[in-house]
Amino acid sequence: MILDSLDGTVDGKTVSILGLAFKKNTDDISESVSLKVIRELRRRNALVKVHDPMALDNTKKILGSDIEYYSDKIRCIAHTDCCVIMTEWEEYGELTKSLFRKHMNRPNVVDARRILDPTVMNGMNLTSIGLG
What we know:
Blueprint: H1 2-5, E1 14-18, H2 33-43, E2 47-51, H3 56-63, E3 68-70, H4 73-77, E4 82-85, H5 90-93, H6 97-103, E5 108-111, E6 125-128
Parallel strand pairs: 1-2, 1-4, 2-3, 4-5, 5-6
């Protein structure tokens, strides 16, 4: 899905990951799919920027300086080619089409938690995993 939104390659592209914890309201990354996604993106030479309200410190302990960490979600998505929402934090559901368009290089969003309303995000490249 990420590759589809980036013309088939992430090599040299910047991808933001919103959500590192395996579920909202925790800093637990022990079962987090985000870590697998980040490692694969890095293996394919993508620059990865991450945000999570609680799990940044735990992620730093595992991934170190191989990625960029942001305490502000808007700074995290700024100048990126794709944004992937991996944890269903309420604050990610508050992101608007205009924010994605204003701050991203290209408004490509993969919503792995289905927290964005596709009818409100019409006109931008939104892929919601699990929706037909």
